[in-house]
Amino acid sequence: MFAARRPSLAAALNNARAALGTPGTWLTGTQRVAVTAEARAARRCDQCDRRRTALWAGSEPGHHHTAGGVPANTAELIHRITTDSARLTRAVVDRAAAALGEGDYVEMVATVGVLVTLDTFTLALGTDTLDLPPPVPGEPERTAPPGAARRHNWVATVDPEQAEGLVARLYASDATVATVVEALTLAPRGAADFWRLAGPLYLKPDEPGPGHETEGSLTRAEVELIAARVSALNECFY
What we know:
This protein is mainly alpha-helical. The protein is built from 12 helices and no strands.
């Protein structure tokens, strides 16, 4: 139904799905598909359900329901990112960066973000989730973008003033929320996949102000009201 009303939205969703199978900055296409499969498994995981209601996640020992495509420590991290991200701590991120690599961790976050966005949208429509894409052969760059360094964030990022190439284009596409864009700049390809969904599903950078209709049928004020409510429910500190 949404394809007939907004063909650009259907194209954006299908392109985002296909991109999940392509090599990123740090992960291969096979690894990225495995991450998305594990993120879906997390939504059916009894262990994650118990942890979400526990005062402290570490107080609920047990085993996750997994898809089986990643090592146990990686599955644990993906489940935390997917189902209990509000309680991630600096210590958890530091351990993940030491065990997996800082770039791998950031790209996992971006990949899970795309998958959750796609699945949440189809869930809201009451339609079937999109099939995971076949992995595309090829190797990731595995090179940090110029200017990447740890500053005020838990992971290395690139400041807008030092951005080049794809990172610079990410900042240029939405300069009003540069701090949000900055969070994933260590993995530019994963970040680009995530932010390409922002325009069709939320707002384009040049979208009109309050009182005007957006590309969809809602006004800017209505979109922001829904976004603020969803952010509050998700415990987003922004």
